[in-house]
């Protein structure tokens, strides 16, 4: 290897990039220097995208990127760029979409793409490649050789030949001219309900086979559809059953960490038994909201226990001292996948009393064969009632031994080498969590969750909001990546959620600033909708306008939802108009595959039926039972704001309204139409029914 080779990842803040900083590859981060060099030397770009918690990223790194011979070939024939997908979701989104267009299936990580140096068009794109090939998959060096030869052979025509790919990507941002719909209407919701059931797994819950992801959008959609059906001729109990069954099966399965709380990213099997062991902040944020909302629909100690344990995990393992929350925990520890979470039966027996061991063994199938490479990953296989019957003891006693046994396992597990933690604080993911913490606080009247949410918002305000611009990533006291659409949309949504937990005029003021900035920097004011990147970002091969759900909700859908609520709360017609333009722009996808666009479906429902704003004003603590009554049950159309009596800067819907001598009054508005004030708690509860 030539001594002149320089790996430029040493000075990067990203833990994922630093994981590759000592390799013999001449890595660059995504930067102008690398792009200029590729053009000057007329070399294709080898783009590798991953993230620090990704197991197969670690495997490819160890197998290929650390190999001297492979690195030498990469350095001689490519300009090599490494990207952290959590740090640059814009780049990742572009090339993941390109993968789907080229392969007609979802991509994944690590993502491996060969790009033309001038227009950054992918002429080859794949995911993980092993060092050595097999009948089913070529080896990485073979891929390098073939793509380098392909570029040299077709050098003069390769970019022109891939123009159809660029055209296909750009078409995703526009409504086809020939496409005719009936305008914004509720039909897509009904179609989505059918599509959810078509892929639903009746036996194990969830959607599809393996690998099986939580798919929060589908679950949220089913709950939403059930709510809508309650106001029609016949309640669709099957929708609620599908969502309930899935959340219960996930809670029992190995995708749920029974010892330490929280959820892993996905299950490698269809039965939720064995997970891919990384833990992501965004997954757990979305699931916290779902379990909290399901408890509003069908109260159950299971939902509360799962949600409470999830929050305990967040506080213990993911919360920064400054109030924000870290991004991920790796799948690996001590260079082995899942090692931190796995057990030997003898190890468990030595830690527990006889009764505890019997209950744990029966609960998690320790009497059966090991389920993961000679070890046990805990996955619930038997209910406590069944164990109680077999052991001839009370179910309460079984639950006691189960909990005490799990606590002992937790203490022992804490002595192990923990998985690596990626300590980036991502604005979008933290905003998702703030909203979920607010939902938990409302559902379970949990003051701790409200404080966590408010402290997290304060962290973002203090560190990520500079000169009326939002920043995306905080790491080691620095932020240098301007925010993307998800950062703005999710934060605006989180601020509206926070105002429903605790009214504070500074959060309302910030919400309007976020909304104005989002519209100014991201809206396509000609065709409607929002781009993922701000208007002043250097252009890439394609500028996405994301409509579809992926692991995260659609930024366009969340933006439209939040603008509708804030628009009616403040009487801001411009916000309502922008939301309407977004929905009209997305109308064709809502009619084509609505189940892929849950956030937009929710926004569509708010647009058609209008958000119900319930504004409670009065003296505390007299107003508290009013607020609790209004927030008790699941109602995705209802937004409840409880304002202290002396609140200044009242929302538009409250202007010229007074308490009329009462301690508490509720003002209920559907859009711009408001009812007469309700002045007794009994009348208010009657109205809510």
Structural key phrases:
single chain; 689 residues; alpha+beta; Glutaredoxin; Glycosyltransferase; Arc Repressor Mutant, subunit A; 4 domains; five-stranded mixed beta sheet; 20 strands; globular
Under the CATH scheme, the architecture of the largest domain is: Alpha/alpha barrel
Mean pLDDT, to the nearest integer, reads: 94
Largest sheet: 5 strands, mixed
Across the major sheet, the strand order is 1-3-2-4-5
List segments where confidence is low: pLDDT < 50 over at least 5 consecutive residues: none
Class from secondary-structure proportions: alpha+beta
Number of helices: 27
| CATH uppermost class of the largest domain | Mainly Alpha
Q: Between the first and last Cα atoms, what is the distance in angstroms?
A: 74 Å
How many discrete structural domains? 4
């Amino acid at each position: 290897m030539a001594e002149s080779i320089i790996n430029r990842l040493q000075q990067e803040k990203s833990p994922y990039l630093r994981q590759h900083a000592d390799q013999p590859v001449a890595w660059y981060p995504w930067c102008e220097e690398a792009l200029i060099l590729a053009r000057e030397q007329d070399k294709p770009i080898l783009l590798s995208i991953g993230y620090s918690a990704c197991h197969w990223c670690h495997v490819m790194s160890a197998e290929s990127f650390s190999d001297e011979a492979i690195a030498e070939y990469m350095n001689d024939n490519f300009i090599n760029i490494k990207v952290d997908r959590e740090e640059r979701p814009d780049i990742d989104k572009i090339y993941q979409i390109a993968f789907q267009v080229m392969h007609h299936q979802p991509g994944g990580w690590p993502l491996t793409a060969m790009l033309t140096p001038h227009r950054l068009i992918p002429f080859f794109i794949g995911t993980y490649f092993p060092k050595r090939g097999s009948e089913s998959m070529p080896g990485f060096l073979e891929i390098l050789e073939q793509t380098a030869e392909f570029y040299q052979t077709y050098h003069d025509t390769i970019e022109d030949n891939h123009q159809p790919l660029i055209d296909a990507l750009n078409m995703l941002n526009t409504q086809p001219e020939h496409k005719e719909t009936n305008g914004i209407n509720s039909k897509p919701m009904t179609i989505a309900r059918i599509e959810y059931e078509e892929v639903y797994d009746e036996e194990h819950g969830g959607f599809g086979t393996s690998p099986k992801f939580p798919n929060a959008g589908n679950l949220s959609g089913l709950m939403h559809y059930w709510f809508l059906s309650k106001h029609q001729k016949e309640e669709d109990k099957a929708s609620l059953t599908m969502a309930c069954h899935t959340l219960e099966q996930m809670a029992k399965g190995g995708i749920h960490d029974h010892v330490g709380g929280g959820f892993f990213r996905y299950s490698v099997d269809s039965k939720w038994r064995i997970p891919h062991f990384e833990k992501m902040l965004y997954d757990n944020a979305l699931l916290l909201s779902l379990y909290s909302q399901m408890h509003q629909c069908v109260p159950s100690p299971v939902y509360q226990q799962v949600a409470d344990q999830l929050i305990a995990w967040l506080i213990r393992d993911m919360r920064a001292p400054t109030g924000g929350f870290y991004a991920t925990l790796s799948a690996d520890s001590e260079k082995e996948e899942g090692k931190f979470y796995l057990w030997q039966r003898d190890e468990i027996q030595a830690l527990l009393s006889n009764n505890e061991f019997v209950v744990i063994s029966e609960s998690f199938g320790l009497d059966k064969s090991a389920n993961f490479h000679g070890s046990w990953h805990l996955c619930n296989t038997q209910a406590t009632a069944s164990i109680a019957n077999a052991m001839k003891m009370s179910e309460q006693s079984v639950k006691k031994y189960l909990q005490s046994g799990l606590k002992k396992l937790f203490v022992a597990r804490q002595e192990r080498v923990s998985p690596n933690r990626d300590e980036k604080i991502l604005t979008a993911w933290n905003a998702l969590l703030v909203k979920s913490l607010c939902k938990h606080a409302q559902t379970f009247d949990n003051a701790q969750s409200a404080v966590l949410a408010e402290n997290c918002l304060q962290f973002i305000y203090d560190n990520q909001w500079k000169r009326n611009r939002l920043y995306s990533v905080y790491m080691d006291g620095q932020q240098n990546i301007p925010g993307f659409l998800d950062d703005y949309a999710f934060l605006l949504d989180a601020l509206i959620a926070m105002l429903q937990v605790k009214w504070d005029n500074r959060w309302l003021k910030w919400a309007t600033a976020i909304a104005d900035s989002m519209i100014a920097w991201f809206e396509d004011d000609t065709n409607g909708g929002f781009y993922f990147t701000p208007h002043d970002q250097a252009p890439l091969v394609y500028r996405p306008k994301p409509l579809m759900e992926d692991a995260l909700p659609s930024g366009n859908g969340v933006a439209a939802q939040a603008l509708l609520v804030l628009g009616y709360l403040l009487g801001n017609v411009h916000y309502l108009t922008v939301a309407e333009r977004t929905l009209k722009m997305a109308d064709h996808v809502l009619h084509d595959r609505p189940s892929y666009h849950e956030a937009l479906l929710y926004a569509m429902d708010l647009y058609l039926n209008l958000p119900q704003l319930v504004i409670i004003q009065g003296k505390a603590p007299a107003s508290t039972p009013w607020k609790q009554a209004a927030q008790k049950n699941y109602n995705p159309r209802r937004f409840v704001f409880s304002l202290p009596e002396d609140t200044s800067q009242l929302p538009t819907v409250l202007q010229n309204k007074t308490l009329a001598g009462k301690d508490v009054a509720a003002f209920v508005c559907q859009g711009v139409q408001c009812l007469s004030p309700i002045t007794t708690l009994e009348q208010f509860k009657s109205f809510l029914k």
